[in-house]
Amino acid sequence: MEQSKGRRLILCPLPLQGHINPMLELAKILHSKGFSIAIIHTNFNSLNPSTRNPHFTYHSIPVDLTETEASIKDLTVVLSILNAKCVEPFRECLAGLLSDGVHSGNPIACLISDPFFDFTRSVAESFELPTIMLRTGSAASLAVYAAFPLLKEKGYLPISDSRLEIPVAELSPLKVKDLPTMTNCDPEVFYQVITNMANEPKASYGLIFNTFEDLEGHALATIRQKYYPNIPIFSLGPFHKCGPTTSSSSSSLLAQDQSCISWLDTQAPKSVVYVSFGSIASIDQAQFLEIAWGLVNSGQPFLWVVRLGLVQESNWLEKLPNEFTEALNKRAHVVKWAPQKEVLAHPAVGAFWTHCGWNSTLESICEGIPMICTPCFGDQMVNARYVSDVWKVGLQLEHGIERGEVERTIRRLMVEEEGEEIKDRALKLMEEANLCLKGGGSSYQSLDGLIQHILSL
Ligand code: UDX
């Protein structure tokens, strides 16, 4: 702590909710260890000034996406526009911060950035500033991404519909259908974006994961030995349980509707199914109705996040029939965005129907909440398979979203014996998540290692 006192770090999150949250949580952790923190962020998905951390300095860079660019559904295109438009503003901002550092006699130790923000490392390098990467997804999903060239060579990629059930022997227990894909985009472009991202850390000064050894020891070993043997790897998650809990700052881009907490207060312990598909995924109207009826027919109370934009070509709930709205009023609560971590920690929540974004997966694990998995794209497919087949703390909707299967799966998890075993395993995993952060635990030690590494740069 003494050594790091006041040493400055710059953190630069990719401006998407699932990437911003872990980067800012990491910032909190490092601040609690004595570092001073500067955040470079874009004016696209800009961080809310009223909920910023008062101990950090924030530096906004202009990207000026046009309205059409900002509403593009193909994430690979949005990413390439961001990567092109951010370079110069980032360079200018970094130059300013570095020069302030020199003048104040407190130079910057390093940049911590996201490998999807592929220009940041080379710009920092041009100023001789070392970069450490934070990979915000699971270690298992990065091991899959890093294997993309091999998967292509072996014919698993591009994915063919006739081979979905074939096991990927090199990546057990994954099947071809679990390999990451992206809807609304050219598979070749997706391949390129992913291989660039997976290569980026190789030239960096280290790679940080929001995960822990007891959860992903095997994937971390593969990452260390096979894909990134020349850089130090740090696994210090789960971040949100590791940093100080007193801070009221939030990195949520959308306002969190607190009404769900008072609604949860009126529900029986472990009775509610919490349903959310994160910040990007979208579903069509037919799937929306299948979800709605599956939930109602399950007989369980539910809290459902229907984010604006979740349902394609729809404004919010207007596609739901009246009978559903009546059924809904009896047993459910619907919001546009929830305080998810608080929801998952609430005693009334008994299951999480999730898209398996890595943050959601980890947040659920940390509260011992079993999952129902509907992965939508990218790393979510890998995370979902690990939840259902490796950690065995959830069930996957294997045949898409259909009301009968939704109802059956909720009942299997919430009321049947099979569910009891899954719930027990989820509680055990939660204990492991807590233990790794305590003195001597793997994440605790890894954080110490990261601090020493930063101070040695
Ligand atoms: C994206 C990708 O989808 C995901 O696969 C990748 O791992 C990270 O980037 P996203 O879809 O947003 O993330 O999902 P997730 O990783 O789960 O992150 C969502 C974050 O938003 C979580 O931290 C969650 O707590 C928060 N959230 C979600 C809310 O605060 N309120 C909500 O209502 C829903």
Summarize the structure.
The chain has 457 residues and is an alpha/beta fold. The chain is built from 19 helices and 13 strands.
The strands making up the biggest β-sheet line up spatially as 3-2-1-4-5-6-7
* Silhouette: globular
How many domains would you count in the coordinates? 2
The major β-sheet equals: 7 strands, parallel
Helix content: 40-55%
**Arithmetic mean pLDDT:** 94
What's the alpha carbon Rg, rounded to whole Å? 22 Å
CATH superfamily of the largest domain: Glycogen Phosphorylase B
End-to-end distance: 16 Å
> What class, by secondary structure content?
alpha/beta
Number of strands: 13
Which ranges are low-confidence, i.e. pLDDT below 50, for 5 or more consecutive residues?
none
Tell me the fraction of residues in β-strands, as a range. Answer: 5-15%
Ligands and ions found: uridine-5'-diphosphate-xylopyranose
Q: What's the multimeric state?
A: single chain
Q: In CATH, what is the class of the largest domain?
A: Alpha Beta
> From the coordinates shown, what is the CATH architecture of the largest domain?
3-Layer(aba) Sandwich
* CATH topology descriptor of the largest domain: Rossmann fold
